[in-house]
Amino acid sequence: MNRFEEYKDIWVFAEQRDGKLANVALELIGEGRRLSRDMERNTKVYAILAGTQEDVDSLAKECFEYGADGVISLQHPLLKQYTTDAYTKALTELIIQRKPEIVIYGATHIGRDLAPRIAARVNTGLTADCTHLDVNLDKYVDYANKNTTLDTSKIDPASDDGGLKMTRPAFGGNLMATIICPNTRPQMSTVRPGVMQRLERDPQADGEVEVVVPQLEEKDIRVKVLEVIKSAKEMVSLTDADIICSGGRGLGGPEGFELMRRFAEKTGGVVGASRAAVDSGWIDHSHQVGQTGTTVKPKIYFACGISGAIQHLAGMQTSDIIVAINKDPDAPIFTVADFGIVGDLYKVVPTIINLWDDAEELYETDLRRQ
Amino acid sequence: MAYKVIVCAKQVPDTNVIRIDPKTGTLIRQGVPSILNPDDANALEGALTLKDRYPGSTVTVVTMGPPQAKDILIEAIAMGADKGVLLTDRAVGGSDTWATSNALAGVIQYLGNFDILIGGRQAIDGDTAQVGPQIAEKLGIPQVTYVEGLEIEEDGRTVLAKRQLEDGYETVEVALPCMLTCVKELNEPRYMTYAGIFDEEMDEKIITLSATDVNLDPAIVGLKASPTNVFRSFTPKPKGRGIMLDGSDEKELATRLLVNLKAKHVI
């Protein structure tokens, strides 16, 4: 008999702000479905919503459409805004009562505030910022063989206990570690936004919503939110972008991002930045790509004047196509680039912008020439 | 008003200078300097700023690690901290975040009352950001994470903090005592002073404690007590070099690039 028999199902914390689901919530529902297929005992994926009735009522359908088998909706006026105290209390009580086998959260500023607090209260393990999850050991070995330098010959397939294998970067992306939580339940992790795949939306999907009203009082909430300010700065959604035009130290100054903005405008992309450029104060940190910024995987990543520090590479090397433009032919960025151009970005990028609309024609001409 | 401020800090390898051996695919740790974790330096600066503003306040820096972790306490005192406390013991080695927070909460309880606990958002070796909130939970105090602005209100017992969000910030209010974890936007850490580096009382200002000194329950600290274990660790596979484009001028280079992107059906 399984000593964790009582623990069942996968829970996804379906983070919402102002009645809008976070993208990562939908990605995690998709990942939960993928994991559940490798689990026994008819494992189901539940989306856990938390908020006021007004804010979360309309979100349950969306969770079903993206693959949730069930929705538990925590509703209370005191869940209007995210607070550590109220959310920790509501979720912890539900976890202790219902005993999920796995709980995953988005590694957002909310998820990374909430999950450790819950883990400490429930006294279970928590793995931060995961980029890959597996329950099946054979699938883990396949993943490791394909993407890592791990010697998998020493892993005994018969040793699989069906536990969650949570893989994450450490040491600034220099090292990857797979973490397990063998002796306590639930197994919990936060997962980096933009890494997991959401499922195709099924507009027909629907299901049963269970509404739970947690016991909350004003005095439970010790940190009072006075105001929430959305910055006037442009919204950057690096994780959703198909094309990212990213600039680094090689831009030479803040004015370089003017060129990046023109580049992004022409290509329909968004502007990204390396840590060096952000630390120099040339652009806001919300544009930062890399280990301490956002992980991205656009269709095309243009790295302009970015040398390719390991932290940066960790955040963008799973992009479909990487184009590197740099003066220094020895820049590490070229080791991950699909296409490299050694040259002055201030000459190369404007030329790409000028020729962008002619790409089809240039391609046809090139085909005829061959 | 005067405040007792405790700073949680960690000594970390400078991950910016870690390189991978291209032949073996392993980390080259040799020659990698150990430093005060950058976010923790901001936490210390935040504490020292409070001390400057509220004379009579004290700043104690707490860390856990091998004996050489004492170096960051020396650095902190040279910047202006009053006291450094090092918990060093094999019994706490290999702790995950849950066990680490139990150990540090134990040290903090041993030290007695405090008003403000402050630490960096996360350490650059683990990047978990979990220990701060977990210490707060173990001590039963409220937390504010991602702090990028910090003041004490007129009543002297309430912190007004600016908490960074992905798309802006929120202003929050919390009564003391509380735990704050801060980001680099909070401030610019000061330098060590000459007088601080050559502080004659340096030795007296640093206390080294063992697990038994602070009465830690062996069942909740160390490798064995940790709920999470490392199953495997490895280096990512390098993606491999692609095509370097050639051309006599920018126009030719840009054309080659666009033709290639078209051929890959990505534009």
TrEMBL record, chain A:
Keyword Methyltransferase: no
Ranges where the Electron transfer flavoprotein alpha/beta-subunit N-terminal domain occurs: 10-225
Entries under Pfam families matching the protein: ETF, ETF_alpha
Chain sites annotated for binding FAD: 249, 274-275, 288-292, 305-312, 326
This protein's UniProt keywords: FAD, Flavoprotein
Cofactor note: Binds 1 FAD per dimer.
Record protein name field: Electron transfer flavoprotein subunit alpha/FixB family protein
Species of provenance: Hornefia butyriciproducens
SUPFAM superfamilies on file: Adenine nucleotide alpha hydrolases-like (SSF52402), DHS-like NAD/FAD-binding domain (SSF52467)
Lineage of the species this protein comes from: Bacteria, Bacillati, Bacillota, Clostridia, Peptostreptococcales
A GO term, aspect molecular function: electron transfer activity
TrEMBL record, chain B:
Top-level lineage group: Bacteria
Annotated Gene3D superfamilies: HUPs
Cofactors required: AMP
InterPro entries assigned to the protein according to its UniProt record, in alphabetical order: ET-Flavoprotein_bsu_CS, ETF_a/b_N, ETF_b, ETF_beta_N, Rossmann-like_a/b/a_fold
Matching SUPFAM superfamilies: Adenine nucleotide alpha hydrolases-like (SSF52402)
Gene Ontology terms for molecular function: electron transfer activity
Domain Electron transfer flavoprotein alpha/beta-subunit N-terminal residue range list: 24-218
Residues making up the signal peptide according to the UniProt record: none
Similarity comment: family membership: Belongs to the ETF beta-subunit/FixA family.
Name of this chain's protein: Electron transfer flavoprotein small subunit
